[in-house]
């Protein structure tokens, strides 16, 4: 999403960007709440109206806010622990480089240990799954306040610290895109912290809570729930293991830290990326072993392409004479950097997006078996926790499952992530192409000629 005056947008004279930004500021939180409500409703219709509108008293909860702040505090404390490695980011406008701690995987492991200790001491992790609505609501409020503070902080930031896109002078638009590139207090980098810690680790914790809740309700977690948890844990573990690679993404090097990324990191990722596990808790799906193995294979293929492509580029950028990439064909560019034209990057221009998309598909498939019977909520029985907090709610869990018609493709909800992600990556790819064309000019055109497909070979 380029700013007015940037090549992506076509210049400030084109149109006022604030209505679009304002609409997204309202629509994104509304969509999140809609998705959470729909996932727990019987018919789970993505495109229909929400099954009911929750009362404000069911969303507003100071206790849940405390829990959220404790989570953010814990992750911030883990971020500040001594890191096994500290690396420098890319060069900034003023020729300086920021330093970043590499301890994200350590934070994941320590969080897992703390949660494990808590559970063995009687912490009811499963009840987290019943707090998702108020938790998402309080996270949305926190996001608004945090983005406002970031906007204010940018007023006193030096011009060299501002992002290229979010400084148009249009308040709503700049609030949305973010003014400051790398907002920090001392060495604490807010964007880097939010991109990889509370949201990503929160996502797998929510998934785990849904798995635990399913085990409590039905005796054991379903195979589909195991698969979704396993696949997404692998994805998050991989992101934190290769934490350093995030420093070269456009989110860190180009985009300001405003509402869009704050909301994306702290609300969108944990609450909508866990939608498949949420769906499965309320709509358990029987999954045969052969189908499960086929889905694992699809995920493994996706991961192989995603990791292979990302590692190949990262290794090449760090050390082009590394033996694993030294034999690959390249094109020279005027900047002195070279572009890979063989290996993964000779197959399509964004092989890492292709792998990511294949994995996204594999995450949806356990939720929509094509064979056998789907299960849906039968008799309704709210849990004691929910009843005490919110009163009887016809949308709460049951252990009593009744078969219903196979969901198959008739249900879009489990595919929501895939569809959204496809749109996100197509948009992201177009932005990246613009930036690469500007950076590399004719060399990029030559690359496009030699590697004509963007994401999907022979199709797109
Ligand atoms: N799950 C999620 O919600 C999201 C996941 N992602 C994932 O994050 C990962 C990173 O994605 P993203 O930051 O968008 O971009 P990429 O990792 O694809 O990086 C793009 C950059 O790579 C370099 N590059 C492009 N082509 C070549 C080539 N042929 N040879 C060498 N270098 C090349 C260019 O930068 P330069 O030349 O300057 O090095 C270009 O700007 C992806 O795997 C993506 O799928 C991204 C967004 C959301
Ligand atoms: C709210 C909007 C609709 C969209 C917001 C977009 C954000 C959710 C994504 C923008 C780039 C992201 C990345 C990851 C997560 C999603 C967001 C924040 C990422 C951390 C996921 C794990 C990957 O391995 C990665 C490469 C580290 C990703 C970096 C980009």
From TrEMBL:
Known catalytic reactions: 4,4-dimethyl-8,14-cholestadien-3beta-ol + NADPH + H(+) = 4,4-dimethyl-5alpha-cholest-8-en-3beta-ol + NADP(+); 5alpha-cholest-8,14-dien-3beta-ol + NADPH + H(+) = 5alpha-cholest-8-en-3beta-ol + NADP(+); 4,4-dimethyl-5alpha-cholesta-8,24-dien-3beta-ol + NADP(+) = 4,4-dimethyl-5alpha-cholesta-8,14,24-trien-3beta-ol + NADPH + H(+)
Keyword Membrane (UniProt): yes
Keywords, in A-Z order: Cholesterol biosynthesis, Cholesterol metabolism, Endoplasmic reticulum, Lipid biosynthesis, Lipid metabolism, Membrane, Oxidoreductase, Steroid biosynthesis, Steroid metabolism, Sterol biosynthesis, Sterol metabolism, Transmembrane, Transmembrane helix
Subcellular location: Endomembrane system; Endoplasmic reticulum membrane; Microsome membrane
Main location: membrane
Record-level GO BP terms: cholesterol biosynthetic process
Pathway field: Steroid biosynthesis; cholesterol biosynthesis
Pfam family, one: ERG4_ERG24
EC number annotated for this UniProt entry: 1.3.1.70
Keyword Oxidoreductase attached: yes
Classification via InterPro entries: ERG24_DHCR-like, Sterol_reductase_CS
Domain of life assignment: Eukaryota
GO cellular component annotations of the record: endoplasmic reticulum membrane; nuclear inner membrane
GO MF term (any one): Delta14-sterol reductase activity
Residue spans crossing the bilayer: 21-39, 59-81, 102-125, 131-152, 257-275, 287-306
UniProt topology in membrane: Multi-pass membrane protein
PROSITE patterns, per database record: STEROL_REDUCT_1 (PS01017), STEROL_REDUCT_2 (PS01018)
Similarity remark: Belongs to the ERG4/ERG24 family.
Function, in words: Catalyzes the reduction of the C14-unsaturated bond of lanosterol, as part of the metabolic pathway leading to cholesterol biosynthesis.
Protein name: Delta(14)-sterol reductase TM7SF2
């Amino acid at each position: 999403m380029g700013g007015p005056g940037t090549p992506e947008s076509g210049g400030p004279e084109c149109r006022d960007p604030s209505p679009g930004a304002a609409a997204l500021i309202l629509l994104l939180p509304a969509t999140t709440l809609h998705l959470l409500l729909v996932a727990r409703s019987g018919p789970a219709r993505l495109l229909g109206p929400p099954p009911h509108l929750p009362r404000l008293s069911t969303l507003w909860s100071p206790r849940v806010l405390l829990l959220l702040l404790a989570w953010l505090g814990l992750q911030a404390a883990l971020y500040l622990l001594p890191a096994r490695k500290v690396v420098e980011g890319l060069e900034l406008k003023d020729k300086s480089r920021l330093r970043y701690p590499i301890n994200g995987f350590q934070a994941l492991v320590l969080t897992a240990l703390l949660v494990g200790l808590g559970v063995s001491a009687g912490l009811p992790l499963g009840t987290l799954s019943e707090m998702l609505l108020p938790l998402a609501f309080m996270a949305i409020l926190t996001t608004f306040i945090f983005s406002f503070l970031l906007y204010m902080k940018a007023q006193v930031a030096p011009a060299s610290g501002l992002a290229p896109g979010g400084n148009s002078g249009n308040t709503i638009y700049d609030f949305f895109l973010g003014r400051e590139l790398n907002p920090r207090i001392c060495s604490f980098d807010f964007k880097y912290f939010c991109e990889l810690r509370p949201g990503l680790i929160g996502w797998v914790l929510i998934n785990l809570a849904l798995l635990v809740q399913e085990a409590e309700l039905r005796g054991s977690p379903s195979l589909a729930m195991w698969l979704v948890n396993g696949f997404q844990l692998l994805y998050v573990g991989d992101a934190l293991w290769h934490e350093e690679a995030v420093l070269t993404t456009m989110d860190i090097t180009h985009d300001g830290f405003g509402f869009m990324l704050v909301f994306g990191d702290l609300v969108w990722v944990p609450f909508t990326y866990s939608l498949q596990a949420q769906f499965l808790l309320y709509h358990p799906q029987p999954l045969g072993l052969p189908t499960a193995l086929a889905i694992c294979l699809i995920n493994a293929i996706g991961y192989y392409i995603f990791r292979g492509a990302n590692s190949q580029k990262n290794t090449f950028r760090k050390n082009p004479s590394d033996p694993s990439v030294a034999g690959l064909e390249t094109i020279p560019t005027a900047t002195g950097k070279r572009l890979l034209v063989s290996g993964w990057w000779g197959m399509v221009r964004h092989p890492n997006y292709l792998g990511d998309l294949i994995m996204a598909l594999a995450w949806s498939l356990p939720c929509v078996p094509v064979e056998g019977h789907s299960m849906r909520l039968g008799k309704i029985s709210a849990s004691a926790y929910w009843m005490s907090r919110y009163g009887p709610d016809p949308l709460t869990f049951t252990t009593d499952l009744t078969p219903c018609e196979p969901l198959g493709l008739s249900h879009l909800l489990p595919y929501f992530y895939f569809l959204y992600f496809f749109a996100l990556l197509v948009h992201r790819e177009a932005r990246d192409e613009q930036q690469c064309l500007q950076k590399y000019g004719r060399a990029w055109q030559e690359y496009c000629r030699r590697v004509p497909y963007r994401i999907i070979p022979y199709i797109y």
